[in-house]
Design goal:
Layout (H helix, E strand, L loop, with lengths): L1 E10 L2 E7 L4 E6 L5 H12 L14 H12 L5 H7 L4 E7 L25 E10 L3 H12 E2 L2 E2 L5 H7 L1 H4 E9 L2 E8 L1 H7 L2 E4 L15 H6 L11 H36 L20 H8 L3 E3 L6 E3 L5 H23 L6 E5 L7 H18 L5 E5 L3 H4 L7 E7 L2 E6 H7 L1 H14 L8 E5 L2 H16 L15 E5 L5 H11 L3 E4 L4 E6 L5 E5 L7 E2 L2 H10 L11 H5 L7 E2 L2 E4 L12 H8 L22 H11 L7 H12 L5
Parallel strand pairs: 3-14, 3-15, 10-13, 13-14, 17-18, 17-19, 19-24
Antiparallel strand pairs: 1-2, 1-4, 4-5, 5-8, 6-7, 8-9, 11-12, 15-16, 20-21, 20-22, 23-24
């Protein structure tokens, strides 16, 4: 059996969020403040029966909540109607047991299977925080805030009264629902839900120290092995632990005997004033020394240098290794706990931001081997949920396991990247390989900029700063320079492959590419071939992204006929915008048009490149060997250079785009 879907309603930013769950690992990625932690928090609250506060209730739902309460207090709405009108915090779990043998005991899932259809292989579980106070109790709690001298007269404190009493008003109720008849449901206990979904969470704030101020140090985790039965231990280490215990038991007896004898002599020789009398009982000492207690309470990690056989304290080791070791021990403890239960269940493991303190290669290795590591720990399948801000982890995971958290004014939704993969098989391989090779941080960006090459990648941050300083962005409160944008070097030949993916993520995106004007010319042997020419002589473009864009604007995506360069140049700002994507390429300035970034820069910075005012397009040609050197030299030698208009236009468009719609 496995959890396949979770639907959360009215919990913080999760107004109506459906999360499709992978059978093994579900990775949730997204910008900051996109309710990744809130998802875990809601599930944990329900499974551990934690109370909720008014802070957990969505801001967008509060006006209606206040209104319904006020109508009830004004006696314009019955208590029964109030219970129906209030939108409550709820969570729904869908469990699939189609792969289980019909004759197998479904264990902890059994109480939640209430349908009689033998062909049904899903169980639907619903939990909500509904009004738990009766009508009189609710009235008594709020009456003083709504009435004065028997007259309905809200005093301005009614909202605070609701917030302060929120946890008293609402309580958790769990239902098993017949998936074939949603009106058929049975109340179940929270304990039954907890037994079905054993939960273990490893939060982002992991204590990694080895000093005495931390109660959850690595040493404590390691010494926990001493308390485990041999059956619980990995066979590889069980024999060693058994040998350690034999040594400790023998040492305990010997130390105890010698300690009693020595301390008894010391005490008897030290006591004076006529006592003890030789005729009376002699004083003795019985100690309660326990070496195993010392092992458990004083165990600390140390690191030994190979040939020197010298050790260093754990505090001298890197935090990345400590973090990794701690996660491994916590996972081991959880897996052993699951195996001890001996009943069919759906274990859930939450790990927040495992990348803390890990260097990039370690992050990649963690993502690659997590499932294998858990599989070796336990025969019971564990469904793992990860949140991460690491491009290395995100780009190591399979697309099918990634859920992109997209935030809007209506709340957060989780997009299943597997949906994109199935709908765009032609682009998938390229995007997947590109993300893996470049460790692209697109999943965490407010906006994206796709650029042609190294020159744009180096110059764009400086150009954005120049546009800000020159007032190109106007008086916008949130300007591009202060937002987090992903700068992706992709090239005109491949940028179009990214556009459907950008659309799927819903990230505002600017594409800066080259006009790449070409014309028919005679090649070797007199054969007619397309050759790069100046724009004034160009017949069409060799830029695949521009061609892809233009054909879709015309409604003929499969038309491979030649496109006139004049039609491309004549594209309006509206023609250059498709949804949340906008494309820009070189335009005419000072009477000339370059067909690459370098030519456009030379055109608007003629003095720096010692070009006369009256020149031809051929004089703009970039003849250097390195475009990277060209960009660096421009920044170093000409810090007050002019930014070409097409780049200004693109950046101004992107700056105006709202992150939240």
């Amino acid at each position: 059996m496995q959890l396949t879907k979770i639907n959360i309603k009215n919990y913080r930013l999760l107004v109506n969020a459906e999360l499709e769950v992978d059978p093994k690992t579900t990775l949730i990625v997204g910008r900051n403040n996109t309710a990744k932690t809130s998802c875990f928090s809601c599930i944990e609250n329900v499974l551990k029966k934690e109370t909720i506060s008014f802070d957990d209730y969505p801001l967008s739902k509060r006006d209606n909540f206040y209104t319904q309460i006020a109508l009830f207090m004004e006696k314009k709405l019955s208590y029964e109607e109030l219970c129906k009108q209030i939108e409550v915090i709820s969570i729904e779990f869908l469990v699939d047991y189609s792969l289980d043998d019909p004759d197998d005991n479904l264990g902890a899932l059994s109480p939640f299977i209430i349908d009689v259809d033998v062909n049904t292989t899903t169980a639907l579980i619903y939990a909500e925080y509904q009004l738990k106070t009766d009508e009189k109790a609710l009235w008594d709690l709020l009456e003083s805030s709504y009435y004065k001298d028997g007259t309905f007269s809200p005093n301005g404190e009614e909202h605070k009264a609701i917030a302060d009493n929120f946890s008293k008003l609402f309580g958790l109720t769990v239902y098993a629902i017949n998936p074939n008849n949603l009106d058929d449901k049975q109340v179940k206990s929270q304990k039954e839900l907890q037994e079905l979904f054993p939960l273990y969470a490893i939060p982002a704030e992991r204590v990694l120290g080895e000093d005495e101020t931390h109660n959850s140090s690595l040493g404590k985790l390691i010494s926990g092995f001493f308390d485990m039965s041999e059956a619980e231990l990995n066979p590889k280490i069980a024999e060693e632990v058994k040998r350690l215990r034999t040594i400790v038991e023998s040492a305990n007896k010997e130390v105890q005997k010698q300690s009693d004898e020595i301390l008894s002599t010391v005490v008897n020789n030290s006591v004076g004033f006529g006592y003890p009398n030789i005729e009376e009982l002699k004083l003795g000492v019985t100690t309660q020394l326990s070496i195993d207690d010392q092992i458990k309470n004083q165990t600390k990690l140390s690191y030994t240098a190979g040939t020197a056989n010298e050790s260093l304290p754990s505090s001298h080791n890197g935090l990345g290794y400590k973090n990794l070791i701690k996660i491994e021990f916590l996972l081991t403890a959880f897996a052993k706990d699951i195996e001890k239960r001996g009943v069919a269940c759906v274990p859930l493991l939450f790990i927040e931001e495992p990348e803390s303190h890990m260097h990039p290669q370690m992050q990649t290795a963690f993502a690659m081997y997590l499932e294998k590591f858990l599989g070796e720990l336990s025969d019971v399948p564990i469904q793992t949920f990860l949140t991460s801000h690491s491009a290395h982890i995100a780009n190591t995971m399979e697309f099918a396991k990634i859920r992109y958290a997209q935030k809007s004014k209506r709340g957060v939704i989780y997009k299943n990247l597997n949906t994109f993969a199935q709908e765009n098989p032609d682009n998938l391989d390229f995007i997947r390989k590109y993300l893996t090779l470049t460790k692209c941080d697109l999943f965490f960006a407010d906006k994206a900029i796709l650029v042609e090459g190294a020159s744009e990648r180096l110059l764009l941050p400086d150009m954005i700063e120049k546009c800000k300083e020159s007032g190109e962005f106007g008086d916008d409160r949130y300007t591009l320079w202060s937002q987090y944008y992903a700068l992706i070097e992709i090239g005109g030949a491949y940028a179009y492959k990214f556009i459907p993916f950008i659309d799927f993520l819903g990230v505002p995106c600017l594409i800066l590419t080259d006009l790449d004007s070409v014309a028919d010319r005679k090649g070797r042997g007199g054969k007619i071939v397309k050759k790069s020419v100046v724009v004034s002589e160009g017949e069409t473009t060799s830029n695949e992204t521009i061609k892809w864009w233009f054909r879709r604007n015309k409604g003929n995506p499969d038309d491979d006929s030649e496109i006139e360069l004049s039609e491309i140049i004549a594209m309006t700002p509206d023609d250059k915008t498709r949804g949340k994507c906008h494309i820009e390429f070189q335009t005419t300035e000072k009477g000339l048009c370059g067909h690459s970034l370098e030519e456009a820069i030379r055109n608007v910075n003629r003095k720096h490149y010692k070009l006369r005012n009256k020149i031809k397009e051929k004089n703009l040609e970039f003849t250097g060997k390195s475009k990277t050197d060209f960009a660096l030299n421009l920044i170093y030698d000409c810090p007050d250079y002019c930014v070409p208009d097409y780049i200004k236009s693109g950046l101004k468009w992107l700056n105006k785009q709202k992150v939240l719609e």
